[in-house]
Each structure stands twice: as structure tokens, then as C-alpha cells.
Amino acid sequence: MFFAGLFAMYFTTRAALPELWAEQTAKLNLTFAAINTTVLVLSSVTCQMGVWAAERFQPRRAGSLLQVSRWGMQEWMTLTFLMGAAFIGGQVFEYAELVGHGVALDSDPYGSVFYLATGFHGLHVVGGLIAFLMLLGRSFAARRFGHHEATTAIVVSYYWHFVDVVWIALFGAIYLIR
């Protein structure tokens, strides 16, 4: 519901100020945002690979680090964490670029809506990163990897997939609908 409110705010402001919207969206770097989005979407794939390993009760790899097909939950979830952190780093870079082009939180309604929508999504990604750290810590500390740890991995993945789906919708609304 919260993100539905952000979308409503976004489209209402866009309809009220079409000239401002055209001017400010021209400053967005679609190529960079598409690459950053791809990283986040692919992190859902690695997260699901980690879930499948957890469901097999395989907490860690069963071979060399280079044998990706034998990775366990810890390796997949660590990769997912790194990809999520890279996405956040990309958002920070994009924010710095946009501020340099005069698009700031307090510059105009477009800046306010852009940063509120993407910023709150970013906070949710950070929440997911914290959940991954807790999941990994719990799995390393567990004497025996069982149903409890596997269920935790599944629940964290539900949240992560939700965050990814929300970003796909935000990306479409912000970057593709000009």
C-alpha cells in the first residue's frame, strides 16, 4: 500500500507538471539505470538458487568455489547480498550525478517525487541486505542446518523478490514512461 501511494503521488505530479517532467527525465541515465536494474533482477535469481540449496539442506558448497553448480545457500546468499549492495552503490552514484545536474530532493516537485520513490525503495533494499546478514549469521552459527534455517531463507527470499518486483515497476514508471 505504501508503494501504491508513492506511485499515485508520482503519476499525479507528472500529470500536473508535464513540461517539468519532460525536462527532468531527460537528465536520467537510462543505460546506467538499466544496468543497475539488471543487477538487482539477477540477484533474485541468485537468491532463488540459495533457497533451493537451503531446501536441499545444503548450507555450504560441496566442492571448489569455482564449481558454482555445487554451491550451497551461504554462497548464493552472499552473492545476492553483494549484488544488492552493488545496486545501492549504483543508486548513490546516480543520486550524485543527478544532484550535479540540478535534480535534488528540494529542487522541484520532480526531484521530490523521484527521491522519495527511489529512496524508500532503497531503504527497503537495505532492509533486505540486513536480513541477508542475519540469515547468513544464523546459518554459520547453526550446529545443524535444518528446517528452521531453510524456512528463514525462504522468508527472506519472499521479501527480496517483492523488493525486486517493486523496483521493476518503479523502473518502468520512472525511466521508461517519459
UniProtKB/TrEMBL annotation:
GO cellular component, as recorded: plasma membrane
Keywords assigned: Cell membrane, Membrane, Translocase, Transmembrane, Transmembrane helix
Any Pfam family the entry gives: COX3
Topological relation to the membrane, as annotated: Multi-pass membrane protein
Domain (Heme-copper oxidase subunit III family profile) ranges: 1-178
One term of GO molecular function: cytochrome-c oxidase activity
Main enzyme class: translocase
Keyword Transmembrane helix: yes
InterPro entries linked: Cyt_c/ubiquinol_Oxase_su3, Cyt_c_oxidase-like_su3, Cyt_c_oxidase_su3-like_sf, Cyt_c_oxidase_su3_a-hlx
Subcellular location: Cell membrane
Catalysed reactions, semicolon-separated: 4 Fe(II)-[cytochrome c] + O2 + 8 H(+)(in) = 4 Fe(III)-[cytochrome c] + 2 H2O + 4 H(+)(out)
Family, as annotated: Belongs to the cytochrome c oxidase subunit 3 family.
Name of the protein in its database record: cytochrome-c oxidase
Classification lineage: Bacteria, Bacillati, Actinomycetota, Actinomycetes, Micrococcales
